[in-house]
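User: quick one, sequence for these tokens?
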């Protein structure tokens, strides 16, 4: 395969299926925990299990991704996640699933994700020309969102019929298919991976080298003023934006006095908005000035969340529209930011770059979940939306005041 478009879409067709089957299983496990325990604490623990490994291991995983063959890393991570899930099927042959095992499987699966995420992000620029990275990020966002929407919908139908075991079987099939699509595509080795294969290090030497490489990854981030600023802006967004999504159902049902159907409408509106935004980014690519695209995205997200916080209790229909707008705006920040990292850093550093970003973003998300859980109960959900939206809008203003962010240009096709 020499055509980069064929390579990209071959890999991402497999990833789309794998994302879909993983979303089905993830939703099935969440519903299983909700039905069996009816506990908000347990669902919080499940969320922590999903984010903690990336927060703790992201930088280490990213450095190892740079050392290893990225193609084999992606395949290995997919098959590892599938094999961990099979534990649930084996256990159900002998007994009912205990709570601790489901949480343990969620935790162990997310360790595989900590390797898979930086690997796929680092593989893309080895295949895709620089001038098309932003558009491909938009398509990637669309695929991920479609996988989530379809996976959630299918889980609702199949979980009562198949149970957790059937969902695991589906997930394993998706992982195998994703591995096969990666296997048939020729992906170049980075210099680090080729050297690591040729000259294996002693364990102590390898450990020292790994810490040096992690520090080196942070240094190259720090040396680029634009991306270093965007790194911390992205972390701030993880703190104040990502956890807000968890409040959508509570806003719909508690503040607006709606039903589960209305809560679903808000969630679907957000997801559909994100899908359309990602597709538009894939076709258009954003403004030539990347800073303008990202600033408008953050501003639109912040203002929409803040406006949602001042709506009257009978304003659910407006809230649903705002949910769509928030979702629509999201890819116009994440897409250009991903493409910028893929363009500006050499291929041999991308694993640790994306690992570091994923680690800090996950820490931000976990901190945001704790912060949101504490303050939202005190202030009320709508007031917390207003506070979060105001802070995010202020972040957009900070970006405007930073020339290194405001003037990031796009690479011409």
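Assistant:
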């Amino acid at each position: 395969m020499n055509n980069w478009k064929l390579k990209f879409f071959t890999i991402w067709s497999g990833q789309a299926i794998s994302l879909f089957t993983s979303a089905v299983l993830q939703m099935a496990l969440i519903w299983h925990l909700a039905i069996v325990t009816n506990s908000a604490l347990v669902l919080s623990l499940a969320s922590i299990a999903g984010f903690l490994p990336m927060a703790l291991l992201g930088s280490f995983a990213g450095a190892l991704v740079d050392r290893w063959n990225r193609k084999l890393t992606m395949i290995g991570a997919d098959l590892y996640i599938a094999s961990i899930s099979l534990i649930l099927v084996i256990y159900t042959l002998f007994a009912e699933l205990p709570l601790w095992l489901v949480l343990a499987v969620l935790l162990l699966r997310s360790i595989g994700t900590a390797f898979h995420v930086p690997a796929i992000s680092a593989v893309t620029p080895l295949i895709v020309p620089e001038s098309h990275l932003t558009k491909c990020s938009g398509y990637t966002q669309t695929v991920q969102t479609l996988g989530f929407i379809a996976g959630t919908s299918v889980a609702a139908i199949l979980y009562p019929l198949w149970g957790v075991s059937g969902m695991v079987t589906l997930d394993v099939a998706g992982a195998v298919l994703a591995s096969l699509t990666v296997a048939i595509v020729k992906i170049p080795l980075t210099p680090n991976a080729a050297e690591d294969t040729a000259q294996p290090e002693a364990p102590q030497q390898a450990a020292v080298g790994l810490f040096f490489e992690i520090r080196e990854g942070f240094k190259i981030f720090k040396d680029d003023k634009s991306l270093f600023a965007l790194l911390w802006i992205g972390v701030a967004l993880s703190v104040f934006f990502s956890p807000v999504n968890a409040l959508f159902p509570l806003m719909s049902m508690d503040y607006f006095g709606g039903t589960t159907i209305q809560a679903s409408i808000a969630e679907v509106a957000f997801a559909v908005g994100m899908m359309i935004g990602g597709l538009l980014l894939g076709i258009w690519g954003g403004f030539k000035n990347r800073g303008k695209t990202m600033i408008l995205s953050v501003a639109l997200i912040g203002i929409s969340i803040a406006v949602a916080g001042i709506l009257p209790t009978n304003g659910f229909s407006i809230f649903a529209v705002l949910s769509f707008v928030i979702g629509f705006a999201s890819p116009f920040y994440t897409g250009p930011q991903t493409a910028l990292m893929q363009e500006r850093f050499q291929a041999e550093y991308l694993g640790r770059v994306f690992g570091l970003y994923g680690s800090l973003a996950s820490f931000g998300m976990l901190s945001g979940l704790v912060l949101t859980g504490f303050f939202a109960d005190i202030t009320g959900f709508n007031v917390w939306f207003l506070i979060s939206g105001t802070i995010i809008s202020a972040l957009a203003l900070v970006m405007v005041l930073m020339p290194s962010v405001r003037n990031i240009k796009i690479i011409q096709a």
